[in-house]
Write a structure and sequence with these properties.
binds magnesium ion; about 30% helix; alpha/beta; 4-stranded antiparallel β-sheet; single chain; binds adenosine-5'-diphosphate
Length: about 290
């Protein structure tokens, strides 16, 4: 299992039927168009002095209820890719499509959870933090937003902390609030950029477990960025391996057979080693000019 395979070919384009937000079946049907298509996407930063190419013609498809992981070394363009999917950075080449529609700007259908603990405004209570995007986007009125906030705070185990302020919470709890806030928006895709990287090892493990439990319950679609091979294998059902700067697709790995229980087992370690070798082997072709 876990055999690396070539990057998936573009599936024919067709509108994805509306899926119920919760309790939907994991749908790996090949006939359905992918929920999210990243199609030969190159991303660049332009400064007056130079152009930095962050990713080079990256392609992958994310299907509904996937836990799709972007894995690669620091600086390979993972965050940039996530920001492009979120609609903050336009591709210089290629196209990003959600439900077959080209992504051109940020929207409530794509919500990002970041690594930083300071993503929660400190003057709002936990509940107000979770309600805020629902109100700001006029998704819900005040009463419904409060109900929805409490529903998702309950899902991350923080009902009792609804009325405290973020500074009274641990790092892990703040990340749970950020996850509840994102899920409360019921996005088409939940985007997470190394959300557990700043946590201690034990808390990180616990958060991975909770995220998987939450996914079991809610079946959201996840695009998750990490530079940790182990975390990628635990969290993801599919993993895109990106080469060092500028990021290119190295391989796509099917990792749905791995979980926290398989951590440290021979198969897990063998796959981790194989991924490590693939990530850091020499570029088969000449890299783009710096
Ligand atoms: N605002 C920026 N201006 C110029 N270059 C940037 C900027 N942000 C990131 N980069 C460069 O783009 C490349 C990819 O960065 P990033 O997406 O943050 O990588 P990763 O998240 O994989 O660590 C890196 O070489 C980085 O230095
Ligand atoms: Mg990053």
């Amino acid at each position: 299992m876990g055999a690396g395979r070539a990057v998936a070919k573009q599936a024919p384009l067709a509108p994805t039927p509306a899926l119920p937000r919760e309790g939907r079946e994991e749908d790996q049907g090949q006939e359905l168009a992918p929920l999210l298509q990243v199609d030969s996407v190159s991303l660049e930063y332009r400064t007056p002095e130079r152009v930095v190419r962050a990713t080079h013609r990256v392609s992958f498809d994310v299907h509904a209820a996937d836990r799709f992981v972007l894995l690669g070394p620091s600086g390979c363009g993972k965050s940039t890719l996530l920001k492009a999917v979120a609609g903050f950075i336009p591709p210089v080449e290629g196209e990003i499509r959600l439900d077959g529609q080209r992504v051109t700007q940020p929207g409530p259908d794509r919500i990002v959870v970041f690594q930083e603990f300071d993503q929660l405004p400190p003057w709002k209570t936990v509940k107000q933090n979770v309600m805020f995007p629902l109100l700001a986007s006029r998704t819900l009125g005040k009463k419904e937003a409060a109900e929805r906030a409490l529903h998702y705070l309950d899902k991350v185990g923080l009902s009792k902390f609804a009325d405290v302020h973020p500074h009274q919470l641990s790092g892990g709890m703040k990340q749970r609030v950020a996850i509840a806030r994102a899920l409360a928006m019921q996005p088409r895709v939940l985007l997470m950029d190394e959300p557990f990287a700043a946590l201690d090892a034990l808390t990180r493990r616990k958060m991975q477990q909770e995220l998987l439990e939450l996914w079991d319950e809610v079946r959201f679609t996840l695009l998750f960025v990490t530079h940790s091979i182990e975390e990628a294998l635990v969290v993801g059902n599919r993993i895109a391996l990106l080469s060092p700067h500028p990021g290119r697709m190295r391989a796509e790995i099917n990792s749905h057979g791995f979980s926290l229980e398989s951590l440290g087992g021979p198969e897990f370690q063998g796959t981790a080693k194989r991924i490590h070798d693939m990530l850091f082997e020499e570029e088969p072709e000449v890299a783009a000019a710096p």
